[in-house]
């Protein structure tokens, strides 16, 4: 079954909001064997909405529209959808009561403007919204479904999970899709591709291999399409295993895991623990690790030592070192890593110190210069990086490189 | 001038990657007075790419295509674009030398597969890529431009900044767009809308007001379209001032700033400093603050105390408190905030402790139960939250609420 997502609102087009909704929807729909073929982000103008609805309705079985359902004037999705379906908006007393209750729950009276929220497409089934005031709508026309959801991520996700997905499960698709993943570290995309070229050549026409590169790593995604799920799974397992055998030790995961998930899982398995001592990354490494469910089994904590006084008082960096070599130096970053390891009693610690920018650079220590240290069971490793991005890119790259260095030292010290 | 963005690649549709490129491109193009009208994400199949290119070329002046330029077989953008333009791919020796140099810079030999990277659309001008191996391309046809860029964010951004934007600046548009922002805290979207309804009623037809709600705050975006930039700016300033006067103290910023940027700017202005003591948010508050350029002037550091031992050793939480009330308790979170404030010598500290999930919940302390404390100059404030999201949503909401509580206490104690 094919789906398209239409997101409505200028904020995405102006780049003020990153569209995280669509990625989340893509994952949820994939689990239902519904495959998103296109995501279209448009302005909240009637003309654009009509055009996008028309085009999507010619291609997809399920069309999910997010955004523009609020009570304010810039929200035109509902009125436009009525035009598209050649129907009208009708007042729904049950929805009005529900919206009033939502306001009552927060001890607020409902502003008059919200009466409009009780206007529902005449051909729609209401998806009651317990997480906000704009109701969702489900419009079924023969074998085609249109789902209208608010754009606020929290409301959209809850409405989808609790209202729309149970209804979508009633649909069924003959076309099956099977996926396999291989996460590799330390081998470039094209070298990897050359080393497995003959295996790729021998793929059946139903199989497709995608290369998803990220700093220092490449994720391979193997996709198989067909009708016989059992047969697809057998072929997928076979192809995946042939790739794994060929790629060898660069393979660090054979499931759809993030690098952080691999680190957490492996550290737990080997009873290793981790702390971070972060200056320029500002807690970003700790944040990524703790986003992984189960991180508390291996991650004990972090010292974000943004100020030099905190490097001294909380990590034991010596004042002489700071004076002589500066905060952005190999000496300091080693003391930071060791300080975190000793004070938090962990087997591993990773430390960063650098100039993320845009300010703070000098001729000797320019913006983007970042030291990383990893302290392990038996040794400390350091590396100097010179990035050329903006502040956020420099932070992201330093974070990725720190995790890669941590992983490499960990693997040296903990061979299976 | 109108633009459309086409992103090519299954990973966005499958939800494995969030499309951050488009938001970044939207911002950059807006600064050039080029307005993104649509973002289309499609699979990397020839049929979809041809359809998207055809549709976009009928509507937009500038079409930016990202993704599918790599050397591997799943990358079909170049060959498909050649079909679209009814031209061919030609070998470019200069590009080949450039790609070889990129490999040489990393002390690697170029795999044969990369010879294909030197194949360039016959009608294109090369955008040389110093940040990766896939060259970008610029195709100009009369008043219309097509820009092809790799999908890797780091490469895409650099190619855009250093190669494409200088060329785009040569274009000019008669239609001008002027924006104004108002960031408000603590007033709901519909209450806000009601309170300014008469001002909105009096808007000229060239003006448009958008409401962008987020947890606890609403951002207003005022857009004006027209030909006379001076006149547009005068009207925008006038309308913005009328809104600010009406909304009053709920206005916390009148520029396009994030909440974190407002906090950093205001703390610096009032010589206030901040530390965080984070358990369930895992460094996410520190990360958001330190993403703001200039944060080092007010942010001294964070203690991410994921393990109880770290709460005791690094923040001075008493073992009796942990035994008697547990880590997720008002008593603990107060001691965490005070501990960070005292040990890092800051005027403010914010602390979080809770159960982000999915594991770790009990009947008494269910998943989503999160305590937040803010320690200020004269007082400590606490609040208990019960969220119902998944792990990432709970972390995000706890982070937002912690920043809101910090802001409210800060404002009480530092009136201008």
From TrEMBL, chains A, B:
Domain of life: Bacteria
NCBIfam families: cinA_nterm (TIGR00200), molyb_syn (TIGR00177), PncC_domain (TIGR00199), PRK00549.1 (NF001813)
Gene3D superfamilies for this protein: CinA-like (3.90.950.20), MoaB/Mog-like domain (3.40.980.10)
Protein name: CinA-like protein
InterPro entries: CinA (IPR050101), CinA-like_C (IPR036653), CinA_C (IPR008136), CinA_KH (IPR041424), Competence-induced_CinA (IPR008135), MoaB/Mog-like_dom_sf (IPR036425), MoaB/Mog_dom (IPR001453)
Family: Belongs to the CinA family.
SMART domains, per database record: MoCF_biosynth
Start and end residues of each MoaB/Mog domain: 4-171
Pfam families membership: CinA, CinA_KH, MoCF_biosynth
């Amino acid at each position: 079954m094919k789906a398209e997502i239409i997101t409505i609102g200028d904020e995405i087009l102006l780049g003020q909001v990153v569209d995280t909704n669509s990625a989340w929807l893509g994952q949820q729909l994939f689990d239902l064997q519904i495959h998103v073929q296109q995501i279209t982000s448009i302005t909240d103008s009637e003309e654009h909405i009509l055009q996008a609805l028309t085009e999507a309705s010619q291609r997809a079985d399920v069309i999910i529209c997010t955004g523009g359902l609020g009570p304010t004037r810039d929200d035109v999705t509902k009125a436009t959808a009525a035009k598209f379906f050649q129907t009208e908006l009708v007042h729904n007393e049950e929805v009005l009561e529900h919206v009033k209750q939502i306001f009552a729950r927060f001890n607020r009276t409902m502003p008059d403007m919200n009466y409009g929220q009780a206007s529902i497409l005449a051909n729609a089934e209401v998806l009651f919204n317990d997480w906000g005031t704009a109701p969702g709508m489900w419009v079924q026309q023969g074998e085609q479904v249109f789902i209208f959801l608010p754009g606020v991520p929290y409301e959209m996700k809850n409405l989808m999970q609790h209202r729309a997905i149970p209804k979508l499960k009633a649909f069924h698709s003959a076309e099956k899709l099977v996926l396999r993943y291989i996460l590799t570290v330390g081998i470039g995309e094209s070298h990897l591709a050359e080393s497995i070229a003959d295996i790729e050549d021998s793929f059946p026409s139903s199989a497709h291999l995608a290369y998803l590169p990220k700093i220092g790593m490449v994720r391979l995604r193997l996709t198989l399409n067909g009708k016989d799920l059992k047969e697809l799974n057998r072929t997928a397992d076979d192809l995946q295993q042939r790739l794994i055998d060929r790629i060898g030790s660069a393979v660090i995961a054979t499931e759809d895991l993030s690098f952080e998930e691999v680190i957490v899982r492996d550290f737990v398995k080997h009873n290793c623990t981790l702390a971070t001592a972060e200056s320029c990354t500002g807690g970003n490494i700790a944040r990524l690790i703790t986003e992984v469910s189960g991180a508390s089994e291996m991650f004990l904590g972090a010292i974000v030592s943004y100020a030099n006084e905190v490097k001294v008082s909380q990590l034991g960096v010596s004042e002489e070192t700071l004076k002589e070599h500066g905060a952005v130096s190999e000496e300091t970053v080693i003391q930071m890593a060791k300080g975190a390891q000793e004070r938090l009693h962990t087997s591993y610690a990773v430390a960063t110190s650098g100039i993320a920018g845009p300010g703070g650079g000098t001729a000797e220590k320019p913006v983007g210069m970042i030291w990383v240290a990893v302290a392990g069971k038996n040794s400390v490793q350091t590396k100097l990086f010179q990035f050329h991005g903006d502040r956020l890119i420099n932070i992201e790259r330093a974070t990725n490189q720190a995790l890669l260095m941590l992983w490499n030292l960990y693997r040296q010290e903990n061979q299976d």
